Amino acid sequence: MSREQRARIDAMLRTPRPEGPQPVEEIRSGFAAMMATMIVPDGIRTTDVTLGSRRTLLVEPRDAGPRASTGTILYFHGGGHVYGSPETALSLTGNLVARTGFRAFSPDYRLAPEHPFPAAIDDALAAYRALLDAGEDPASLAFAGDSAGGGLTVTTCLAARAAGLPLPAAIVAFSPGLDGTRSGESMDTKAGRDPFFTREGLAHTGAMYLAGQDPHQELISPVLHADLTGFPPMLLQVGTNEVLLDDSTRMAARAREAGVDVILDVTAEVPHVFQAFAGVLDEADQALDRAALFLTQHLA
User: Fold this and answer.
1) Which residues are catalytic?
2) How many whole angstroms separate alpha carbon 43 and alpha carbon 98?
């Protein structure tokens, strides 16, 4: 472990911010500016394509021949369903591509408050359906995502199953948000330890996404209400300094109870979506290596 690296990142994330709820435009621009400082690996190329009517970023190994590797990742970016884009997640998507040799599609799904629940799930499902319609083998396809996008890996599986579609071969979720009720004990026990989120901040963006909907439903709080029977193998990675820690620990328990193969991968004293700090935090690179191994083991 690297105490100095973790301390520097924690201090950076604790840079004073304006008091009180921020306008959505400021939230989006601030997050984009922060994520633009993350290291994107060499050896990848990006192309804008369309999946299910949404702009989507295709990320591929730069030196790979035509479909040299048959694995495909459908990656959902984070941002509380309110901010973020395929570009803000490129350090994550790019690292998975560079480490596996697979290609990744990252859809620019609609965001709240302009497009509240269930718009993001509808767009994620449409992207998955488009890949299947194009001939993608679900046995060679995985869902991956971070934060709210980590939640979409689960809720999109639920929506796909309800639509009668085959499920992907695997799920990788980095610090997923899986409980719209915010009822996990870590919401309180990790308050102050988490340099990124507060209950008040999550309530502010969460209200934009919910738009008055009851969070007690499986597509908003799958950790409480989802039937995971028949789900593909799951890898959940999370840090101990997260108010959302218990979203992952409870989801792992729920998956085990449903007979799902699940790995709960907890790293000490790291923040929310610490994998984005690849290149400056040893634990981030190590976690991405484990995620890449998981994907290569499960994609045919």
Assistant:
1) 147, 242, 272
2) 7
- 152: nearest Cα among 244, 63, 76: 76
Total domains, the chain:
1
Structure tokens at 73: 């990742």
- For each of the chain's 300 residues, which pLDDT tens digit applies? 588 999 999 999 998 777 778 899 999 999 999 999 999 999 999 999 999 999 999 999 998 655 556 899 999 999 999 999 999 999 999 999 999 999 999 999 999 999 999 999 999 999 999 999 999 999 999 999 999 999 999 999 999 999 999 999 999 999 999 999 999 999 999 999 999 999 999 999 999 999 999 999 999 999 999 999 999 999 999 999 999 999 999 999 999 999 999 999 999 999 999 999 999 999 999 999 999 999 999 997
CATH code for the domain in which residue 38 is found: 3.40.50.1820
Size of the chain, expressed as the number of residues it contains: 300
Q: Which domain holds residue 116?
A: 3-298
